[in-house]
Please model this.
Amino acid sequence: MRPFRQHCRTFDDILLLNHIKSLLQKESIIRWQKEWDNGETGRSVHNVLPKVKTTPTPWQRPEIMFVTGHGAFPTYLKRFNIRSIDSCGCGNLGNPLHYATSCLFTTSYHLTKPSADLKPLW
Model:
């Protein structure tokens, strides 16, 4: 039996316990969402996943690396002083969006570049 339920003597006690648990879960989600909305880190992920949820997102490793910018991208490697410059071999900023939309070396893999008004969502 669950630790708190073993102390419940009546059905009303169980209902009260379930109600309290539900209230705590809702409050936790509200607080988590506020922290996520007002945070200073993880903004690229926040743009893609603005709402917190308790179920996992079914992403594969490459998708996670693209959205977070973590991986073998010059911008990420420079951040940790593994590279001295954050530019791509073509001279532009070497971030995931560049490789996916405009790099001359990855043309066959390009996604359609977003319009100027949609670019902040990327």
Remarks:
- The chain has a mean pLDDT of 89.
